[in-house]
Amino acid sequence: MQQSSTYRMQLKERICLSDPTCDEQIIKISVSPLAGEQAKTFVPGQYVRMGLPQLKKPSPAYFAVASSPYELKSYEFVIKCSPGMPEKLLDLDLGADIEVEGPMGKGFDLRDFRGKNIILMGVGTGIAPLRSVWRSLIHERKHYGKISIYAGFLTSFHRLLTDEMEDLSAHDIDVSISLTTGHEGWDGQVGYVQHALESDQPNGDDTVVCLAGMSVMVDACTETLHNLGFNDDHILLNF
After folding, report:
1. In CATH terms, is domain 6-104 a member of 2.60.120.10?
2. pLDDT at residue 178 above 90?
3. pTM tops 0.85, yes or no
4. What was the pLDDT predicted at 19?
5. Span 27-38, mean pLDDT?
6. 111-236 — its CATH code?
7. DSSP E strands: which ranges in 61-185?
8. Maximum pairwise Cα distance, the chain
9. In what order do the strands lie in the sheet with 97-104?
């Protein structure tokens, strides 16, 4: 499902997700098609390239779609406001045109794994493509076994989409949150997401894992999964 033509969309919504005291500013934006059009279909976990029409700076950048392919009125993105295009999206006027290319990349195509258990693992804004997966799985819940999410954040102040993930229990989706740095009053996991996975000892024969995040995190989780008996064909990346 590779679509690489460039087209226009519009910035329709922007919400700050990060705690005001957090040293990182995270936003969720919604980008909608022009009037009378519909967003292009995509595989959960795919990404697009976004830039500003007729402007060379800031340079276009790649962002993972965080919404479900069942919700094509818009694309949603969860973005850390680093220099360049991310910071521009923080200040861009609502209604402004954005030039979009894609969706592109493999995404997380789970159609061949119906009947399997599904694990989603990500840290920080790496949960953006995983959000696309879990929102899609809500529509397809009956086709899969146990669904678990392992999300990691630096501290409680860096947590994202907290209410949304807490509500996933209503769809029989388990969520484990790990903090790299714990604090008084925190009774959840402390450490890295792969440590929480090791504690649960999932069966690699009937479970598929979707990994999203920085390469060092992906490498560490892959090593843990291999130690647990997972084969590479059950460890999925979206790029």
Report:
1. no
2. yes
3. yes
4. 85
5. 93
6. 3.40.50.80
7. 61-64, 75-80, 97-104, 117-123, 147-153, 173-179
8. 52
9. 61-64, 47-51, 97-104, 6-16, 26-33, 75-80
